[in-house]
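Morning F.,

Quick status update on the modeling queue. The single chain you submitted on Monday has been processed. Sequence for confirmation:
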Amino acid sequence: MGHIAPEAAVGGNIALIKQGDLITVDAVKQLIEVDLSDEELEKRKKDWVKPIQKYKRGILSKYSRIVSTSSLGAVTDL
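Structure tokens below.
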């Protein structure tokens, strides 16, 4: 399973997931849930550091700066 969204790059909950966390994926309900308390999510958010942008030039740089979320189609022209 893969999920790609700018949410992870800006510190959303997807960015806070660590190896070993339990994740529930329900395709029927269109749900992705991580089994963490609100307190644990807040702790991880305080410790989160924005990753350095890998691409400084070119199409991947442009795409990573302007792409929308996957729920909107990951498009660049909204």
